[in-house]
């Protein structure tokens, strides 16, 4: 049986598609969809860069730079965001798939399909950040869809706010989706799968907070 990847059909008719993926002996369009997702990730991050999201440090010292230096700074920032988008998409698609493959023995390609859906949802979340920042003035770590806004009222520790800001309704849906998806292919007990998925996300939230803090320090070192 051949399964042709259709991510939105998997999103909206999950049970039927999970059955087809489980029975599939051959997967088609996997790499084509990967390429489309890479392009989408780059486009979204470039759009965010052109809109000025994340350029506060550059803008804050614009008056101290020559026109050439300022434009060069913006160019490097945009190129950096494009590279970040590539690394981000590659990490989301391939690293969790490898970990779950080693844990469960589910065919790697079928796990990549799961992570394609995860990446689509995460890119949708980033699109939602844009109006929140532009029209409401809320950065991602204090989005009303995350726990970061609650953490910001409890503490002023940046890492803690960033950590809880990474825990969003989108992330909770992704955890549910991954547990359901893996459970359909594995005989492993569902609570064991859930523990491993949650642990992976916990490490991901820690990494997100560290990267966000590091990004701030790097920009400060370059442009501050």
Q: Nutshell version of this structure?
A:
The chain has 224 residues and is mainly α. The protein has ten helices and two strands, in the order E-H-H-E-H-H-H-H-H-H-H-H.
Low-confidence stretches: 217-224
Spatial strand sequence of the major β-sheet: 1-2
How many helices? Answer: 10
Provide the succession of SSEs. Answer: EHHEHHHHHHHH
Helicity range? over 70%
Shape: globular
Radius of gyration from CA coordinates: 19 Å
Indicate the structural class: mainly alpha
Mean pLDDT over the full residue set: 86
Number of strands: 2
Strand proportion, as a percent range, falls in under 5%
Cα distance spanning the termini = 58 Å
For the largest beta-sheet, the strand count, sense and barrel status come to: 2 strands, parallel
Would you kindly provide a written description of the structure presented here, covering whatever features stand out?
With 224 residues, the chain is mainly α. The chain is 78% helix and 3% strand. The chain has helices at residues 7-12, 14-23, 30-50, 56-60, 67-104, 108-136, 148-154, 158-165, 169-185, 190-223, and strands spanning 2-4, 26-28. Strands 1-2 form a two-stranded parallel ribbon. It is globular and about 60 Å long.
Features:
single chain; 224 residues; mainly alpha; two-stranded parallel sheet; 10 helices; 2 strands; 78% helix; 3% strand; globular; disordered C terminus
Secondary-structure map:
Blueprint: E1 2-4, H1 7-12, H2 14-23, E2 26-28, H3 30-50, H4 56-60, H5 67-104, H6 108-136, H7 148-154, H8 158-165, H9 169-185, H10 190-223
Parallel strand pairs: 1-2
Helix pairs in contact: 3-5, 3-6, 5-6, 6-9, 7-8, 8-10, 9-10
């Amino acid at each position: 049986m051949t399964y042709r990847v259709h991510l939105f059909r998997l999103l909206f008719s999950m049970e039927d598609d999970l059955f087809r993926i489980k029975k599939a002996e051959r997967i088609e369009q996997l790499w084509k969809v990967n390429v489309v997702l890479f392009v989408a990730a780059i486009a979204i991050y470039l759009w965010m860069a052109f809109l000025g999201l994340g350029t506060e440090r550059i803008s804050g010292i614009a008056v101290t730079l020559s026109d050439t230096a300022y434009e060069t700074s913006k160019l490097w920032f945009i190129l950096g965001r494009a590279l970040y988008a590539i690394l981000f998409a590659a990490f989301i698609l391939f690293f969790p798939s490898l970990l779950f493959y080693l844990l469960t023995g589910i065919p790697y390609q079928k796990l990549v399909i799961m992570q394609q859906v995860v990446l689509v949802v995460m890119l949708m979340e980033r699109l939602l950040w844009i109006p929140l920042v532009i029209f409401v003035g809320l950065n991602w770590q204090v989005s009303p869809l995350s726990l970061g806004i609650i953490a910001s009222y409890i503490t002023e520790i940046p890492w803690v706010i960033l950590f809880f800001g990474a825990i969003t309704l989108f992330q909770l849906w992704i955890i549910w989706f991954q547990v359901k998806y893996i459970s359909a292919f594995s005989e492993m007990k569902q609570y064991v799968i859930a523990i491993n998925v949650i642990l992976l996300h916990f490490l991901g939230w820690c990494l997100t907070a560290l990267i966000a803090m590091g990004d701030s320090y790097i920009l400060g070192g370059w442009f501050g």
